[in-house]
Amino acid sequence: MKQMLLAFLLTLVLNNVLVKEAFGHDGDTYGTILEKFHNKSEDVDFEMELTPIFSLCDTDDASNIVNELDSLISIGKRCPIYTIKNDVDLGTFMKNRSKMMKLCHFLIPHFTFHASPLESLPHEIQDRYDTWQYEPLNKTHENKVRTNLPRLKKIHWSYVNTLTNQVRLLTGAKADFISATEAMYDGWIRKYCGRAKVRKYKELVCNCLQPQNDTLTILTNLKNLFTDYYKRRNLWALFLMEIDTQI
After folding, report:
1. Which three-class secondary structure state does DSSP give residue 159?
2. Is residue 106's pLDDT more than 90?
3. Neighbour tally for 230: CB within 10 Å
4. Among 209, 201, 210, 204, which Cα is nearest to 84's?
């Protein structure tokens, strides 16, 4: 188990170097807080125990999820729409397709970077760190962190479990949506025209709406999950830096 954690920490260090080179900044991150807490503490296991809590998914899982999102972006870009004047279902499909594309583009960097300890600190956390980094670690607080560690792990696990379930649902909904969309795309290729054929094409559009809505709901759930996790992660960071917060 410790070997896996060491490999995870090594990956974070190497990625941190690459990120700084790519983005040209050397700002403090959540990993900076963890390292500083570890250096202040007498417990050699603290950094290894805490680091996974400050990440929502590992590199391999993130890569697989990004592939799922990329496939949704690809079908959205590829699929031309045969215009049906004043068709409500087609209008709904087009509007939802735009929302889906925006959500996919929004989520990708959160899976690949923002939900990891490499994320730069927001201003309110940075302000506290600038002071706390020079303060000695109170032994009572160190014991408090150790006592609350199982609770932190349990809360973190609930986020990971929710993420896993949503991604599993996304895989199924995405497959149904792509299948229905490709059928509609095939209908466009054959250029349905005339009353009967337009009716058939409208059926194909209608068949896309439910799997599209299911997929859109899951993507929205994922966005909300990240937002909630970031709020909780900030509380954990403040807790480590001896600010009394609801963890």
Report:
1. helix
2. yes
3. 16
4. 201
